[in-house]
UniProtKB/TrEMBL annotation, chain A:
InterPro entries: Opp4A, Peptide/Ni-bd, SBP_5, SBP_5_dom. Residues 105-495 form the Solute-binding protein family domain. GO terms for biological process: peptide transport. Keywords: Signal, Transport. It comes from the Bacteria. Residues 26-65 are annotated as: Disordered. It holds the Pfam family SBP_bac_5. This is Oligopeptide-binding protein AppA. Residues 1-29 form the signal peptide. One of its GO terms (molecular function) is peptide transmembrane transporter activity.
From TrEMBL, chain B:
Gene3D superfamilies: MetI-like. Keywords: Cell membrane, Membrane, Transmembrane, Transmembrane helix, Transport. InterPro entries: BPD_transp_1_N (IPR045621), MetI-like (IPR000515), MetI-like_sf (IPR035906). Pfam families: BPD_transp_1, BPD_transp_1_N. NCBIfam families: Opp4B. The chain crosses the membrane at residues 100-120, 132-156, 188-207, 243-268, 288-314. Belongs to the binding-protein-dependent transport system permease family. This is Peptide ABC transporter permease. It is found in: Cell membrane. One of its GO terms (biological process) is transmembrane transport. The keyword Acetylation does not apply. Residues 96-307 form the ABC transmembrane type-1 domain.
Length: 583, 321
């Protein structure tokens, strides 16, 4: 009996240790969620056809679409949480607006008119059918907006609805409907926002929800309902036949699709583990999948698979903590002295060889970025207009000396201007991915090579962002990534009253530029004027170096050679109804 | 026996309470919470995150949160997954059949292999065959399941194309048909072999050693002297004595059946409890995480009780009182 109780103890220990081990072992995903750009818009073909699309594309065939992370199963635009779910929804549902290759909004299910950027009149396409045979009307959109503004709604989209006049009152329970929504007839609706803004249109929630399907379901129970989880009904080119949770989604073509009958007979979405991606592609079991950079070189060697890359909208940076954020007053004070000297920051930027770092850790699927906007965004400044920090160790050492950082005690590393030991602490998040530590170590070595004594600290990813957000004293310089959406407004990340302004960069001129770029009185409808202001802003940020901009990544997709008609640009892929398979 | 069982079950209550306390504290001690992964300026804003924290009660004092959770548990409310936004009970129920199917299959494979090899090795100890079996077993014990899984996928799925490498069933088939069940068996085969074959070592060696030990005992010598056939001695006299230690394992097997295989399920993208458990930890999905841990702890306790009772059945000399 004694032996048995020992075994019992051991088993309990094992259960606990499995639980602890799992804490550190992270997801198989390469990057934390916050670096995922959201791409909701599809575009009609923009650039020229990619190769292999000569002649008439045949119809028929079923395409197998791989995803390497299990979906959460929230298959509705209003409720989804992760990119995998969004990718799947995009195959069977679509929105009122889509985005072209310049990320400019284009009419899709609806077109719009506005005179003052406050009141918009949307006109819906007539005869657009939901998969259940009911026609789409503006009421479905009103229903979606009211669902999101409902106090019981448990998804993250309220920010896209709150700018509509009367939405806050509806949410607080003071009104029975949203006063800014004025239904004129089944195909026309007038939407009034609380104030005139240049980005009201790109910001507003533009996905209708099928009113008939959700009838009688309280908002609080919607995200658990079968209409969201296993029997979603959309407007897109394919309709969902069956869903095996966590494994597969089977779709067949929707013959009444409003843009015309899809060429494919169907799409099977198959969840696979990323250890099997290369083999599955090689065997032809998977026709199409988004790749992680690490798999790129292996897939490139496969003969039956073609790799397509398109510009992404996310970028990586190394931030300097310049101050602290006061959560009570929502104010930033630049009160941290250690990296206050701009020459020190510039020296640290010149010390990093970004190109070879990207080649080593992202297998070349990326390029150095010089400002806080990925270079393919329409507001991105030309690199020549920006202060850039090329790899130049000699320049870095010169700048350090200029700033008073010199090696006084002869240990090979510089001391700060007061003669004290200077140690730059660099923090990076840790997940299960073993390359994170090496790539962070590489940065530390770049700094050490120019005489800055640097130290690496890896922090568990959840703890990491918590520490950054709370301005933990142990965070000095930190690695991070952000994504940009179609709306270029970077205020949420750069305004001096924003929690997510992680470097705690405070610059009144910058605030002013960002405010002006949204101000109709200043820029009016003129996108060029707006871009000008953003370029000025980027110049200022590049000059001030609150963060070292490291890299922007490409999105990589592997396509089996039999797949035709798939095209990508910065806004994502073309509509799946144009995809086809060579017979 | 009944009295003993009841006493043991009552004894489990404080144990489970203690476990719930530890599980809760450990879960809360993990850095971050279910919302820390949602920092994305395109998708949400700090106000939403703050509101959700308030709504989920993350800002309440720890004791309040603990009693709310335990209170819900007693009323049969296991909470709602913060990630999947469905009741945890539904989530577990959706995956449990997959995991049990995998667990039972792998256990059957383990038992068949272990009994065949253990009996052979026990009857012919120190021969080439015995050493070969011992070597194979320890090799199996030494190979981590994720390595074996990846290699198995490479050879049997990619090179030979015999066996599917992902999912639990061919999703195009109609549930309930014969083909559907065939496809499920086909899908479970490889993960079950990987799990089952690697776990045989302890069973085989225990069985072998016990058979060797028993075969030297007096009652075996007596039986031989009486002229009892060798096969009867091994299959009846020795066997019955030798499975006693294996009964101990059976108790733990019950928990293993449910806990699934975290790594193996993930590599084969087999949607079971193990995969759910892993994702609940990485996403700080506390309700799911705590329910699964509690379930496994309770099952380990119950499994032990069953093992203890079975001792009495297998070996009447052991008295439970």
């Amino acid at each position: 009996m004694k032996k048995k109780s020992l075994l019992l103890m051991l088993t309990l220990l094992l259960v606990l240790s499995a639980f602890l081990a799992a804490c550190s072992s992270g997801d198989s995903a390469d990057e934390p969620a916050d670096t995922e750009p959201t791409e909701e818009g599809n575009t009609d073909d923009a650039e020229g056809d990619t190769e292999g699309d000569a002649g008439e594309a045949q119809s028929g065939g079923t395409l197998t679409y791989g995803v390497d992370a299990p979906p959460e199963g929230l298959f509705n635009w209003a409720f989804y949480g992760i990119a995998t779910d969004a990718d799947i929804i995009a195959l069977f549902d679509e929105g009122l607006i889509e985005y072209d290759e310049n990320l400019a909004p284009q009419p899709n299910l609806a077109s719009w008119e506005t005179e003052d950027n406050k009141t918009y009149t949307f006109t819906f396409e007539q005869g657009v059918m939901w998969h259940d045979g009911v026609e789409l009307t503006v009421n479905d959109w009103v229903f979606a907006l009211e669902t999101i503004a409902d106090p019981d709604y448990d998804g993250p989209r309220y920010a896209n609805v709150q700018t509509i006049e009367g939405a806050p009152a509806y949410r607080a329970g003071e009104a029975d409907s949203i006063s800014g929504l004025n239904v004129i007839d089944d195909y026309t609706i007038e939407v009034t926002f609380d104030e005139a803004r240049i980005n009201n249109l790109v910001n507003v929630w533009a996905y209708p929800m099928n009113r008939a399907q959700f009838e009688g379901i309280p908002v609080a129970e919607m995200s658990a309902s079968e209409q969201v989880r296993t029997k979603p009904v959309g407007l897109g080119p394919f309709k969902v036949d069956s869903i095996t949770p966590g494994e597969a989604v089977i779709m067949t073509k929707f013959e009444d699709y409003w843009k015309g009958e899809p060429k494919l007979d169907g799409i099977n979405v198959q969840v696979i583990d990323n250890t099997t991606t290369v083999g599955a592609l090689g065997n032809g079991d998977i026709d199409m999948i988004s790749l992680q950079p690490v798999n790129g070189p292996e897939v490139e060697e496969l003969e039956n698979v073609e790799i397509v890359t398109y510009p992404g909208l996310s970028y990586y940076y190394i931030g300097f903590k310049l101050g602290t954020f006061n959560a009570e007053t929502n104010e930033i004070v630049e009160d941290k002295e250690k990296y206050a000297d701009v020459n020190l920051r510039k020296a640290m930027a010149h010390a990093i060889d970004r190109q070879s770092w990207i080649d080593a850790f992202f297998f070349g699927y990326g390029s150095p970025v010089n400002g806080p906007v990925p270079s393919n965004h329409w507001i991105a400044a030309d690199p020549e207009e920006l202060a850039t920090y090329e790899y130049d160790p000699a320049k870095a050492e010169e700048l350090l000396a200029e700033a008073g950082y010199e090696d006084v005690n002869g240990d090979g590393f510089v001391e700060d201007p007061n003669g004290e030991e200077f140690v730059a602490k660099f923090s990076h998040y840790a997940t299960g991915n073993p390359t994170f530590e090496t790539r962070a170590q590489a940065i530390v070595q770049f700094w050490q090579e120019v005489g800055i004594n640097a130290e690496l600290e890896m922090a568990e990813v959840n703890l990491y962002y918590d520490m950054i957000e709370k301005d933990d004293p142990s965070i000095e310089t930190f690695f991070g990534g952000w994504g940009t959406g179609a709306d270029p407004d970077p205020t949420a990340l750069w305004g001096s009253d924003q929690l997510w302004n992680y470097p705690r960069y405070k610059n009144e001129e910058s605030d002013q530029l960002l405010a002006d770029a949204l101000d109709l009185e200043v820029v009016g409808d003129d996108q060029e004027a707006r871009k000008d202001l953003y370029v000025q802003w980027q110049q200022m940020v590049a000059e001030d170096v609150p963060m070292i901009f490291i890299a922007e990544l490409e999105e990589i997709v592997a396509l089996n050679e039999r797949v035709q008609g798939v095209e990508y640009d910065v806004s994502g892929s073309n509509s799946p109804h144009e995809w086809s398979i060579a017979q | 026996m009944l009295k003993y069982t009841i006493r043991r079950i009552i004894g489990m209550i404080p144990m489970l309470l203690l476990i719930s306390f530890v599980v809760f504290l450990l879960a809360k001690a993990m850095p971050g919470d279910s919302l820390s992964g949602e920092i994305d300026p395109n998708n949400t804003d700090p106000q939403y995150i703050e509101e959700m924290r308030e709504r989920l009660g993350y800002n309440d004092p720890i004791p309040v949160q603990y009693f709310r959770w335990v209170g819900g548990f007693f009323q049969g409310d296991f909470g709602t997954s913060t990630r999947y936004k469905v009741p945890v009970a539904d989530l577990v129920a959706e995956r449990l059949p997959n995991t049990i199917f995998l667990g039972v299959s792998s256990l059957v494979i383990t038992y068949i292999l272990a009994f065949a090899m253990g009996i052979y090795a026990g009857r012919k100890p120190y021969t080439l065959g015995d050493n070969l079996i011992g070597g194979l077993n320890y090799l199996g014990l030494a190979i981590p399941s994720f390595i074996a899984a990846v290699f198995a996928i490479y050879f049997f799925s990619f090179n030979l194309g015999w066996i599917p490498y992902s999912g639990s069933v061919d999703p195009t088939l109609q549930p309930g048909t014969f083909d559907y069940w065939l496809s499920r068996a086909h899908h479970v085969l490889m993960p079950a072999i990987v799990l089952g074959a690697l776990a045989t070592a302890s069973y085989t060696q225990f069985l072998r050693n016990d058979i060797i030990e028993n075969s030297r005992k007096d009652f075996v010598r007596t039986a031989r002297a009486k002229g009892t056939p060798t096969s009867k001695i091994y299959n009846v006299h020795i066997m019955r004595n030798s499975i006693i230690p294996l009964v101990t394992f059976l108790g733990f097997d019950i928990a293993t059946l449910i806990s699934g295989a975290i790594i193996t399920e993930t590599i084969f993208t087999y949607p079971g409890i193990g995969q759910l458990f892993l994702s609940s930890v990485t996403n700080r999905d506390y309700p799911t995480l705590m329910v699964i841990t509690m379930m496994l702890s309770a099952l380990t306790l119950v499994g032990n009780l069953i093992a203890d009772i079975l001792y009495g059945v297998v070996d009447p000399r052991i008295r439970l009182d």
